[in-house]
Design brief:
Blueprint: H1 6-18, H2 21-28, H3 32-46, E1 51-53, E2 58-60, H4 62-88, E3 95-99, H5 108-116, E4 124-128, H6 134-139, E5 145-149, E6 157-165, E7 167-172, H7 223-231, E8 237-240, H8 241-246, E9 252-256, E10 263-270, H9 276-298
Parallel strand pairs: 3-4, 3-5
Antiparallel strand pairs: 1-2, 5-10, 6-10, 7-8, 7-9
Helix pairs in contact: 1-2, 1-4, 5-9
Length: 299
Amino acid sequence: MNELETRQLRYFVAVAEELNFGRAAERLGMAQPPLSRAIRTLERQLGVALLERTTRRVQLTPSGEVLLRDARTALDAVAAAGRHAQHAGETAPQLRVTLKADVDGGLLPRILEAYAAQDTGQPATLVLGRYGEQAAALRDGRADVGLLLDPADARGLDFEPLRSEPFLLAVAAGDPLAQNSEVCLADLAGRTMPGGEPADQGPVPEDRCAFVQRERSSSASDLPEIFRLIELGSIVCFFPASLTDRYPRPDIVYLPVKDLPPATLAVAWPQDSRSPAVAAFVRVATRVAEAAEVAANQG
């Protein structure tokens, strides 16, 4: 078997994630016929079927599922190798901290203050992204450490839980549900979340945060847009309780969901990290979270 090329892996991952050759070709910026030929060439090269194709749908075979897992890891490693080399050549090294703005459990200012007091020689800089991007940023070298909500895909990562808190449902103040003191998921049948997902299934599985925005499925990409859609009654949404404390809105009611597990904020870092700055950040994040929990219990 000839060695695989990163181009082949990128093509396959796009098709495997989209399960649609047309969407995958659009994502890759190429025409569909050469993409289809490339995947068939890859299958012949490996001697196995990676996809089951019918006129109605495309599905992964067991071999395809294995290749998707390993191809993602390989592509992340290639991207990380290049970025790590670039970072090593910086005249002023810095610690890149990835998170989604406002999803920090209210801990970020204290963590950054405590980290700045450490003599690491690497000041912290924030790498902000959309929901669900933080784990990928750690794997592909865009970030060194991060704050993540319930990382469902922890491939190649270590993490330490910092705090748990309830998810609350955000609904329009005029919604009949707003009259309840709490709801259960079954009450949300027929309602949708910002990405179009059924609300009665709870937060989406990518990172347990229900307002993950997929590029192709929703135009609501930030909190002001999402809040406006909730106020109009177009969608409902799950938020960590600490975020709702920051954003009280007269036209939105936040409700406990009695059959929904809590959200857990974690500090995460690549398993192969040997950075003293990363270790220092993890230590202070854990210490700050413990102190915050003690203060909350005493209050």
